[in-house]
Amino acid sequence: GAGRIELCAGLVEGGTTPSMGLLQVVKQCVRVPVFVMIRPRGGDFLYSDREVEVMKADIRLAKLHGADGLVFGALTEDGRIDTELCTALLAVCRPLPVTFHRAFDMVHDPLVALETLISLGFERVLTSGCDSSALEGLSLIKRLAEQAKGRIVVMPGGGITERNLQRILEGSTASEFHCSARSARDSGMKFRNPNVAMGASFSAPEYSIKVADVAKVRTLNAIAKNIL
């Protein structure tokens, strides 16, 4: 029942650019639009010249392998939308639609930033209302949607679950929402070495795999259909 997929790797870091192999296989398996995250690393959204080269190359490859849209965000050191970089990246993305991701939640002035995104030509913005979750940032999300007046889609995301979706949709007047709808699945490994971890100490455990939960997607979709 999902209407669109935002395809990412590295969900522990908030999402990074997926492999082109993953994009190819996903495109073979689904019929809904697939928007590809363009984010070369975790951390902030202030990018070096080399990282910009990587982003441009990833956009070209994603288009080549069937991306239906792209998702990125870039900021200046003082917390504003990096209009110069965004303009350059949007030019590489054309003619595909582009979403500005939750880098928006790190801006200095969200109301000014929204106007900047509209003037640049982004189709939508993903936001938790500059707070820890969409529920916490609900009042700002509503204010942004009212300011947008249909010129850009304001899409709430961040901590959305079956328990709070109705409140978020009704409170924000949003017509779309974003969530991972994930659950943990136990690894199939029978032999396990408890003394070794593949990543940093805060990374996800090796023997628990995060998966998109079909039941959660269906439930969220049913809730949304009753409201929208």
Can you give a write-up of this model?
InterPro entries: CutC-like (IPR005627), CutC-like_dom_sf (IPR036822). It holds the Pfam family CutC. It is found in: Cytoplasm; Nucleus. GO terms for molecular function: copper ion binding. α3 links the parallel β3 (about 70) and β4. The longest helix is centred in the first third of the chain and has 16 residues, at about 50-65. The chain has one domain: Copper homeostasis (CutC) domain (TIM Barrel), CATH 3.20.20.380. It has helices at about 20-30, 50-65, 85-95, 110-120, 140-150, 165-170, 215-225, and strands spanning about 5, 35, 70, 100, 125, 155, 180-185, 210. It has about 230 residues and is of the alpha/beta class. α2 runs parallel beside α3 (about 85-95) and α6 (about 165-170) runs parallel beside α7. The two termini are about 15 Å apart. It has a six-stranded parallel beta sheet.
Which terms summarize this structure?
228 residues; TIM Barrel; two-stranded antiparallel ribbon; six-stranded parallel sheet; alpha/beta; 8 strands
Topology:
Layout: E1 5-7, H1 20-29, E2 34-37, H2 49-64, E3 69-72, H3 83-93, E4 98-100, H4 110-120, E5 124-127, H5 138-148, E6 153-156, H6 165-172, E7 182-186, E8 208-212, H7 214-227
Parallel strand pairs: 1-2, 2-3, 3-4, 4-5, 5-6
Antiparallel strand pairs: 7-8
Helix pairs in contact: 2-3, 6-7
